[in-house]
Amino acid sequence: MFARTLKGVTMAERLKHTGALLNAQKRFSQVTQGAKYGPNFRQYLQLANGEVASYFHDIPLELKTEQRTVRMVVEVPRWSNGKFEISKKLDFNPIVQDVKKGKVRFVHNIFPFHGYIQNYGAIPQTWEDPTREAGLGSIKGDNDPLDCCEIGSMTLHMGDITEVKILGSLALIDDGELDWKVIAINVNDPLALKLNNLEDVEVHMPGLLSATREWFKKYKIPAGKPANEFAFGGQYKDAQYTVQIVRECHEAWKKLISGTVDGDNLPAIRRAGHGIKALSDEEDPMPIPSEVGSWHYV
Predict the structure, then answer these.
(1) 150 and 160 Cβ atoms separated by less than 8 Å
(2) Phi, then psi, of 264 in degrees rounded to 5
(3) Which residues contact 45 (CB under 8 A, 6 or more apart)?
(4) How far, in Å, are 12, 47, 200, 253 from residue 58 at the CA level?
(5) In terms of DSSP bridges, do strands 237-238 and 161-174 run parallel, antiparallel, or are they unpaired?
(6) pLDDT digits (tens, 9 = 90+) for 25-51
(7) Which of 7, 35, 145, 271 is most deeply buried (CB count within 10 A of its CB)?
(8) In this model, does residue 201 exceed pLDDT 80?
(9) Dihedral (CA of 126, 34, 30, 259) sign
(10) Least confident interval from 8-17, 123-132, 200-209, 220-229
């Protein structure tokens, strides 16, 4: 699966080497192993020199406060159903498909929606800390990087790394854990210059915010789970508030990788800079079960 290079290099040199690749060249690609829609599928982040890196830990956050922009990793393209996510457990945190009881998972189609209704992904170098309360009673973080919903006009691809403008956020309560959904738009989208806040979204994309809240509330119901709940009465928080959430979750991530957080089931922390290369072993995709295409009327 992995091959090692850069023997005899000190840790400081490795980290300096990795930082130079990530911040100066800013070039990434992917290495795929296994069959898409199969339980052994893995998509690893690859640096320009071929080293494997972590989607979670190695992509710079690059939060620009004045412009309210940040980086996003796309896990699930719009209109698709596969429940892909950055793995917390595996070394280098590849993108995998969620597996339950040995079967890969898909989200249901809730009429009139089809699969995920936005480009869905994560903000790297952020972490919703499950070891401390999040200021909403006893609710704690969900142990994941911040989720991000990109609402632009283009359908992006799994593993895409793009700069997005923060517009607001929705505080989902998922199985008793806080699970922020950051609403953002690709800075290269035709509408990006016109969208600076949630009010602009309502003007130029009427109905999108209410549809997004409805989807997050109901998308688990066809699987036999109750409707999701929200903090703040289901009201969106504005861009300025959301930037502060990103900052706080970035600080939490810094504590995670420094080893100062004490808890169970914390994410794997294995980063680039050790000369490890992932070996490609991609297989043909597995067939998507026919029932995934069904409508569910909730």
Answers:
(1) no
(2) -95, 150
(3) 28, 30, 52, 53, 54, 55, 58, 59, 92, 94, 159
(4) 15, 10, 33, 12
(5) antiparallel
(6) 358 999 999 999 999 999 999 999 999
(7) 145
(8) yes
(9) positive
(10) 8-17
Which letter does DSSP use for residue 24 in this model? I
The Cα–Cα gap between 248 and 251 comes to: 5
Check if CATH label 1.10.10.10 holds for domain 60-270: no
Evaluate whether 169 touches 236 at the Cβ level (below 8 Å).
yes
- CA distance linking residue 181 with residue 142, whole number of Å: 12
pTM here is: 0.91
Place of tokens 């991609």: 282
Nearest of 211, 79, 240 to residue 155 by alpha carbon: 79
End-to-end Cα, the chain, rounded Å: 43
The 10 Å CB-count burial string (b at 16+, else e) for 211-235 is ebbbbbbbbbebeeeeebebbeebe
**What would the pLDDT profile of 80-120 be if each residue is shown by its tens digit?**
999 999 999 999 999 999 999 999 999 999 999 999 999 99
Give the sign of the dihedral formed by CA 261, CA 23, CA 245, CA 76. negative
